[in-house]
Design goal:
This protein has 284 residues and is α/β, with parallel strands linked by helices. It has two domains: 51 residues, Spermidine synthase, tetramerisation domain (Spermidine Synthase, Chain: A, domain 2, Roll), CATH 2.30.140.10; 224 residues, 3-Layer(aba) Sandwich (Rossmann fold). Helices cover 31% and strands 30% of the residues. The chain is built from ten helices and twelve strands. A hairpin with a 5-residue loop joins β1 and β2. It is globular, with a radius of gyration of 18 Å. Bound molecules: S-adenosylmethionine. The site of S-adenosylmethionine has 25 residues, from β5, β6 and α5.
Length: 284
Amino acid sequence: MLDLWYTENHTDNVRFSIKTNKHIHSEKSDFQQIDFFESDEFGTFFTLDGLMMVNEKDEFVYHDMITHVAMATNPNIKKVLVIGGGDGGTVRELTRYESIEQIDMVEIDERVVRLSQEYLPITAGKLEDPRVTLLFEDGLAYVKNKEDGYYDLILVDSTDPIGPGEGLFSHDFYNNCFRVLTDDGILINQHESPYYPSYAHEMKRAHSKIKGLFPITRVYQFHMPTYPSGHWLFGFASKKYDPLKDVDLDAWNKLGLKTKYYNTDIHTGAFALPTFVKEMLDDA
Ligand code: SAM
């Protein structure tokens, strides 16, 4: 029996491996190396430049947490911009809200979308919803050219700050996000992980840029077994609504959406951060 193990480096000293059954697809797109695998433990999964992006087993955690925290905080969100998100999982969660009228997804790499449609219908299955427009371009340039005050919500569902995702962690990008958001707009952005120093460094960098820009900035955490250390964070930056003080959690429960990770206890609890994380963010 041939054992095929997928292995990625989480740090120079730590590796993470998954036993796979099949290397389904491998290609170098114009932007990155794309690989799809099949495994017993995580189902189908894909990696970009050797880093786990999405797998069938834990994708619900990430996609629940990138979407529902903001949607519960402001139920009047109508126009949403997703930057990256080529697997379609974030769009899938957004399409569950009847109140949303427009979802624009700006993904730099069309190949990620097409391959996800082929191999990961579990996440890509809602990309054909009539409210969704797919735009294959650089998110950085897209927000730069977009008019002021257009979107109620921006979800940055990007890769790490290396390769094509690098610009999505820059001052320029966040300033343009602020400008294209409405007066009560919300931005959810990648905050990486607090655990290993190289990721914690990016977490602090991302937070320091958002902190001075938006009147309300918070960070929330969740558990992603396949991301480095399993401890992952999003930033919540908002012009008006505080996700803890202004949220009507009963109203979200009344929507009757069935979720596997997010619930209204998690909504509140996710913002309670361990002391070492608070100290790092205070210092950012
Ligand atoms: N859940 C994932 C994670 O955190 O690892 C992110 C998944 S999603 C596949 C990330 C997507 O961001 C990729 O498909 C990548 O092509 C896209 N991306 C990276 N840089 C981008 C940019 N500058 N503009 C638009 N999309 C970008």
